[in-house]
Amino acid sequence: SQKIEQNSEALNIQEGKTATLTCNYTNYSPAYLQWYRQDPGRGPVFLLLIRENEKEKRKERLKVTFDTTLKQSLFHITASQPADSATYLCALGSRAGSYQLTFGKGTKLSVIP
Amino acid sequence: DAGITQSPRHKVTETGTPVTLRCHQTENHRYMYWYRQDPGHGLRLIHYSYGVKDTDKGEVSDGYSVSRSKTEDFLLTLESATSSQTSVYFCAIRPDSGGGNTIYFGEGSWLTVV
Questions:
Q1: Are A74 and A64 in contact (CB under 8 A)?
Q2: Which residues pair with residue A92 across a beta bridge?
Q3: Which three-class secondary structure state does DSSP give residue A12?
Q4: Which of A34, A59, B76, B104 gives the lowest tally of CB atoms within 10 Å of its CB?
Q5: Splitting chain B (114 residues) into consecutive groups of 10 residues, what average pLDDT does each group show?
């Protein structure tokens, strides 16, 4: 069965360092992969999308890589700030026309001042 | 702001009662989704719709039904609520154009079944 794993439930990091979150998947061939941010009591908010034929995407302090051979995506936040503290969700996009997303359970990132 | 409104935002109901959650969008996009989010499971798709009266099941559809009689509204109904349906429910939309394959979420509906 399809499985998506985000490397850890929680990650603590010092302010100013680079946070790296991992998303691994099995038994899946996604057309694209997305990362979302979710704050407590709020809905997920889209951050970045990367397609299967792309290796890397950047947006300001965010960088996503996608390795379809390893079946893995890495999500980096450089120069992390306490305001980056949130839960980050990885989501795989279906090839079907329904544009469905299958989500990982998320990693809770805490940036310590 | 994706123009998504969920109602009610919070509800406590008794086991066995019917419950309907409403998702309203202001942009008339075709695709709408209902997800539930639970600790240890993450977000899971319940049902989705790709147009008026066009709906399909997701991963965890048992015990739920949906209806879409107008483009702007997507209703999720629990015919007879059970304690296992205590969860946070998120509605989402996929913009018809300009958004790629991104979906945008509402703020959630917290449902407690006692």
A1: yes
A2: A33, A102
A3: strand
A4: A59
A5: 90 97 94 94 94 94 97 97 98 82 93 98
